[in-house]
Amino acid sequence: MTERSLEHPPLTRLAVLPLLAALAACSSASPVTELAPETYGLTTHASTAAQAARIGVEQARAHCTAMGRNFAVTRSEIGGNEYTIAFTCPRPNPNPLMVEQAPPAPVLVEPAGPIATGALPPMPAPTGRNLY
């Protein structure tokens, strides 16, 4: 084979463009709907499940970004060429440098009285009876 025969003629590459455009056009998405207060959802369809999921996540993230909020998936389902996502758009942390701190450790209080001094009262003498 010659080097020339390995090259694709420009017409062949151009013929692929409509095919790629048709595949991209095969995707659709429902509008974002509010499922519950602060919870949203949408469904996407595409030529593959992976493409439907990618489009769904991108559109959900864009919805939250347009609101100036973060993005969090609450539930998703994928099947066939369909992807359904439920998500929230939580408010960003106003102070990202502030991290949640653990509650302070409990303070141990030294006991007072005979236990603290080690002076315990003597044990009673055994009576021979079973107390249990």
What does this entry show, briefly?
Residues 1-29 form the signal peptide. Helix content is 32%, strand content 21%. The protein has 4 helices and 5 strands, in the order H-H-E-E-E-H-E-E-H.
3D architecture notes:
The structure is a single chain. This protein is α+β, with helices and mostly antiparallel strands. It contains four helices and five strands. Strand 4 and strand 5 form a beta hairpin. The chain is elongated, with a radius of gyration of 34 Å. The chain starts with a helix and ends in a 15-residue tail after the last helix. 8% of the residues are buried. The model is unreliable at 1-5 and 8-24 (pLDDT under 50).
What key attributes describe this structure?
five-stranded antiparallel sheet; Lipoprotein; signal; 132 residues; 4 helices; disordered N terminus; 21% strand; alpha+beta
Inertia-based shape: elongated
How widely separated are the two ends? 99 Å
Number of helices: 4
The poorly predicted ranges are 1-5, 8-24
Q: What's the overall average pLDDT, rounded? A: 75
Query: How can the largest sheet be summarized?
Result: 5 strands, antiparallel
Report the helical percentage.
Answer: 25-40%
The number of strands is: 5
| Helix/strand class | alpha+beta
**What fraction of residues sit in β-strands?**
15-25%
Oligomeric status: single chain
